[in-house]
Structure formats: C-alpha cells, structure tokens
Specification:
By secondary structure, the protein is mostly helical. The protein has one domain. It contains 14 helices and 2 strands, in the order αααααααααααααββα. Strands 1-2 form a two-stranded antiparallel sheet. The longest helix is centred in the middle third of the chain and has 35 residues. The two termini are 39 Å apart.
Length: 293
C-alpha cells in the first residue's frame, strides 16, 4: 500500500460525510426496528377503520351533502378525514422516532464509545434528525396516499388544491415536531422521560393551554405550536378559511361566550418555523455541552 493510500485510509470524513453516514445507518436501524412496523400498523389501522366506516355508513360529515357541488363535498371529506387525523399521525412519528434519538446515546452508553472518536456531535445530531424525519415522512406519506385513494374513489379525479397546501403545512409541522422531540431528547438522559414528556405535551398540555388561554383570558395563543398547526385543517374548511376570531354564545340566554382564535396562514407558518428553528438549535446546544459519564 502506497503512502498516499495509507493517508487516504486514515483521513477522517468531513462533517457532511459524517452526517451522511450517521443518517444512513440510523435510518436502517429505524427501518428494521419494531417501532417502525408498530407505527406503520397503527397508521394502517387508522386508515382501514376510517375506510370501512365511511364506506359502510356513508356519513354526511365525511362525504358532504350530495346536493352540493363536488368542490364543497371534497373539502368536507378531506377536512374531516385528513384535518382531524394527520396531526395525530405526525405526533406519533415524532415520539416514535425522535423521542429517544439523543437520550438513547446517554442511557444506552453508545455515545460514550462513539463521541470520543473524531466525529462531530453536530454531525451525529443532524444525521439522526434527518433519519428520524425521513422515517416519519414515510409513515406520513403512506397515510396521505390512503387518504387521496379514498378521495379519488368518492370524487373521481378531483383533488382540491387546498389539500396540497394542507399537505405541505403538515409536512412543515412534522419538521417542527421532530425538532421539539429532539430538544427534549437532548434535555433528558432517560428515554422514558423524554418520550413521556413529549407525549404529554403534544397530546394533552398544548391543546389544554390553547383552550384555557383563548377561552378564559381571551388572548390569542400565538406562542403554542399546536395553535399554529391549526392551519393544516383550517385551509380545508368548505365555507372558506375561518375568521381569525370567532365568538360562540352558549346557554339558553347566551350569557357565556366562548372565544376561539384561528391563526392566519402566514402566522401559523411563522409559529411552526420558529418552533423548529429554536428547539432544533437548543437541542443541538444541549447535546454539544452534555457530558457522557
């Protein structure tokens, strides 16, 4: 072996190559893991249940009034099917693939043996994030394909342009959810703790806070991620995008008024984008500074 070949063999891959290597092998681990197939089964079960129920009962809440035009009926279908379910699928993707991505390096001691080698922590973090995002995108794409397949069956070849917009917003939201889960995964050294906190926040706390802030304090909850994600379903509203502020009177005399806020599309995208940028950077900073013991 020549001196040049020895030098080439001992050369440390650059940061981009390290990201690619980490992404490749982490994604293969995800693809071969039980969690991928569990989440795939959950997504298929949701899709199958919706397909069977809608096909058998033909509810107007999904298929719309037959006397209305196809545009309104299709928006009703996608709003009910996609708008009410896709955020749940996205949250599960973030929890399954991002919840323990970084904390596992500490709990399983894998980072203790890998990090001392000449590899940047940022390369590990970015590579793992990309692999988790791609794995979650695969699940996301399968759910979207089944949704479109059902829509094509009921409405022919018509797919409203609003669904394409909602699809992009949802994919953008997936990036923010993944950034958020990686932040908590970097914050804790326990897999169960990072997964539990992330699940509770997304499934319960955020929606509860959003309701309490809007209803009791009458303040727009612009600082909550799930509020910004409301644009995913709102863009599919059959009667047009809902008003920014809606007041609903309840009770026999309408003595109690509930205030509901709807984020504008630019506002929602800004909230989602800021959450992604801030949490992803904070997660990386925590991972860079945390010591392996």
């Amino acid at each position: 072996m020549t001196e040049e070949e020895v030098t080439s063999a001992n050369k440390v891959p650059d940061s981009l190559a390290q990201v690619g290597i980490t992404m490749k092998y982490t994604f293969l681990d995800y693809f071969r893991s039980r969690r991928f197939f569990i989440l795939l089964i959950i997504t298929l079960l949701i899709s199958v249940i919706l397909t069977v129920l809608v096909g058998y009962y033909r509810p107007l809440s999904f298929l719309g009034d037959p006397t209305l035009d196809v545009t309104t009926r299709a928006l009703t279908f996608y709003s009910t099917w996609w708008g009410s379910s896709v955020t749940f699928v996205i949250i599960l993707g973030g929890i399954f693939f991002g919840g323990d991505a970084i904390s596992g390096e500490f709990q399983n001691k894998t980072g203790y043996f890998g990090i001392p080698n000449p590899i940047r922590r940022s390369s590990v973090y970015i590579g793992k994030w990309l692999s988790a995002f791609i794995a979650a995108t695969v699940i996301f794409a399968i759910f979207a394909a089944i949704t479109v397949g059902n829509g094509l069956y009921y409405f022919g070849g018509y797919v409203p342009i609003q669904f394409g917009q909602s699809l992009l917003y949802a994919w953008f939201y997936l990036a923010a959810v993944m950034g958020f889960t990686f932040f908590f995964s970097s914050l804790f050294k326990s897999n169960s703790m990072s997964i539990l906190v992330t699940a509770i926040l997304f499934l319960f706390v955020f929606s509860l806070l959003e309701t309490l802030v809007a209803t009791l304090i009458n303040v727009e909850p612009w600082f909550i991620l799930t509020y910004g994600a409301g644009i995913i379903g709102n863009i599919l509203t059959p009667g047009g995008y809902p008003a920014h502020i809606e007041h609903t009177a309840i009770g026999r005399r309408g003595l109690v008024t509930i205030t509901n806020y709807n984020a504008y599309v630019p506002e929602g995208l800004a909230i989602i984008g800021l959450y992604f940028i801030i949490t992803a950077i904070l997660g990386l900073v925590l991972f860079e500074r945390k010591e392996f013991t």
